Input
Amino acid sequence: MSNQKLKGYRRENGAIGIRNHVAIIPVDDISNAAVEGVSKLIPQTTPLPHPYGRLQYGEDLELLFRTLIGHGKNPNVGAVIVIGIEPNWTERIVEGIAETGKPVAGFSIETHGDLETIRRAAKKAKEFVQKVTEIPREPIDLEEMTFSAKCGESDTTTGLASNPAVGVVTDRLVEKGSTFIIGETSEVTGAEQIIADQAVNEKVKQDFLDMFDEYMEDIKSHGGDIHGSQPTQGNIAGGLSTLEEKALGNIEKAGESPIQSVLDYAEEPSVSGLHFMKSSSAAAEMVTLCAAAGSAAHLFTTGQGNIVGHPLLPVIKTTANPKTAREMDEHIDVDISGLLKQTMKMEEAGDALMKALKRTINGRRTAAETLRHKEFILTKLYPSA
Amino acid sequence: MKYQIFIHEKEDDVGVAVTDLEEGRQARAKVLKSQELVEKQVTPREEVPLTHKIALVDLEEGDEVIEYGEVIGRASQQIEAGEHVHTHNIKSLRV
Output
């Protein structure tokens, strides 16, 4: 492995980020216009518009707060503006983010209107942009960081080559002491016992199996048939025939490291090591949940060519499919199709991914960042009241 | 390319084509997860496209199909060694 010096942003609470965003977070759908207004005036900010945040309740509301607060807390963010229609929920999100010690300011639109809110928030955003541009990149270690991984538009090359290569990276990072998040609950169907057996102890194993059963029951209770959507048309085109086959390829990303805990949606890990997060297998939803849980960089393997990105979390894309590497090369950060062409060994693919990860940490823009992929997709558990 | 097919585990019934396989042209296969080198040979009975599976053994209708050393489904019809294996002749057990 290269001894390239790693530099990142050390936040007030010790978390390590690799980007330095000033995020502008709307509490709710009707505050998107003000958020966009501020980002037009101060273009170095990163707006996170989304379609929810009104009349949510119970577990679904808690998930909304956890996700929005999690994005503000994400170490790739240097400062945050929160804008909501009403002061109460706005303030709750501001307080959640303020626990990190980073600069955060909230604005509510009621009694002011959009224009006055935009004026006040833009003034603060200007101050924050100037402030974060003075934060230096400092020497950091991988062990201080949180990472995540997912696969999308999988085919047989994912299970054969690119997921095992990520598994090599997972094991290397976990061995160093990094924190690493995987998930995609429905997509481990058929291999759930293998993941369960990777749990660090009996309690975590039972937590995983309980979470898995509950998740699948939930899909069924809504009239869902996992076989109606899995494998997807893209998976089948890529040669995957059954749900079990897809799952056995999917779990290769986990490497051989013990799973330390089962995380709820968007929950931040409390200890280092590998964690399994309850999450949808839909790419943008899962990546968004990882960002909320504090991931600073995301490894994404694709077979047939998923192109997802995120506004705050750099998504590093790799494929082992020679056809995809050729046809969709502008989306691929690391071409490891040499594994199939037999010009590359698995450890070398792991080295290539580690090298790309380090370059991304040091500031190199990923393909998804460069191509403006900014998918910020909230997981919604049920209809609003 | 030295091998045209990769096999996950020694006991697998299917391998994955790492290049487009031609009907009738013998292909070499390598087992990936094995300490010692295990090679197999199979002659495709039909074209098998890159990333798709080929049967390494004969399977009867109803037989479990093994890949990754695990059951990935059941043969929904008789499959002969060398045939393309996909949704038309294997089905998930989780239905």
